[in-house]
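Entry type: protein chain
Record version: 2
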Amino acid sequence: MSADKANKSGLTDQQQQAKAWFEHLRDDICTAFESLETQDGAGGGAGTSDLEPGRFVQTPWERPAETPTDTSTKGGGVMSVMKGRVFEKVGVNVSTVFGEFSEEFRKNIPGAQDDPRFWASGISLVAHLHSPHVPAVHMNTRHIVTTKSWFGGGADITPMFPDAAEAKTDAADFHATLKAACDAHEVADFDKYKAWCDDYFFLPHRNEARGLGGIFFDYIDSGDKAADFAFTQDVGRAFLDIYPKLVARRMNEPWTDAEREQQLIRRGRYVEFNLLYDRGTKFGLMTGGNTEAILMSLPPEVKWP
């Protein structure tokens, strides 16, 4: 594991701070999303205002031991899911896990080839809205420690009608907020992370992008750990600043059955990416994570024509 000096808990101060931050960000995001659910007329675009305002339901889980003779758990997390009148399904999950990478997986992880032990903490969020006019969104940030230590994450937006003017406006505002977060930190490079996002969230079997992008970054280890962490925090703050505004902007617009049908088809692309290509899905499943939490990102209803 990392040579950084550990405190009495066995974690470095940075690991403790990262874990606490992800939990704090989770709480702030859940509060903001629940507030949208209680606004006057929320979900009124197509009658979902008749539904009860959503509230997050939290479900803790523990990562099981890696061998039959080991009775200890290897960390765990809390899955927070809400279904309401604005959010058809949104999950905001936090986990902190540790143990050893499998032999087949460790070759893909920096610092794990000679020592397979790891520690990982992070937040992962995916939101699917009732309204086809509100873009789906993904955000995650994470801190991973092997013999090396780095931060990763990103956020991206998936409008149901990516060619529409409203989608381009929402995406421009989303990108501008993330750019401001990047520009405030010397360790970050918005243009690089935006291009990385466009390349990563692409479905090669359909030759199309999943959405309208955002930023994606990984293996952030500038040599200044405080600066790397500060940037990671600001990515979370930027998301919390902009996405609730986009939801509030669109959530009460009326929509048609045809628009709903298109939304369900576009969600199919989301499913295809997450099951075929998403590195976070693979990481969670190959490190003994909670299956329900890992697959939380899947939408509640979807169609393939």
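Comment: The chain has eight helices and nine strands.
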